[in-house]
Fold DCD2B protein.
Amino acid sequence: MSSRGFALAPPAKNVVVYRNGDPFFPGRKFVVTHRRFLTFEAFLNEVTKSIHAPLAVRNLYTPRQGHRVAELGDLQDGCQYVAAGFEKFKRLDYLHHGRKELRGTRNSEGTSGWLFFRPFHSCRNTGSSHALGCFYCSVFRNGDLLSPPFPLLLSKSSPLQWDALLATLTEKADLRSGAVNKLCRLDGTQVSGGEELVNGDYYVAVGNEEYKKLPYFELLVPQDSVCRMPWYVD
């Protein structure tokens, strides 16, 4: 058989993609192969879904200089990129997520590109979440009666961007079904926005599957810890 029949496929590339204008998004990892993505547009469509972009992703940029990536072959293994729609590249410190947006920085429309919530680590080691205007929630994993709920501290002083919250829940919950697509109360009703979250309440992170009504609270929350507020979050 001719050696041409054994031509090696291009090696896979591992890249991390951030959301344009979102300094708190932790980035999403992608394995790019020609078998999985035949075109650059197919890859951008997958990025749109995976990072929960509010609008379709149509451009990728390098995170520091903002150079535009024109095609799939331009992606470099082990590198990071910023996903954007048709808006301009927003210069932020994407590689150190969790950094606060600089005070006074606004885009040409006079508003921030995204609405943010401060990550829970901004409220740790304080001795009082209320002193910093933070509030606390506990989140179960849908259908999981083996793992205890994980804590989530949110800041009342910053508007909460729902897609950014779902991305953080996806990272912390690590659901078998994949990304967290919705947050439910213990009775199964869905939370549709940050204004509906209640301080001290319990919620369930759910993926694409249906909500599984189980005795999460009864089985996974020790009774002596119900009234206690944990101030330090790993």
Remarks:
- The mean pLDDT is 76.
- The chain is about 10% helix and 20% strand.
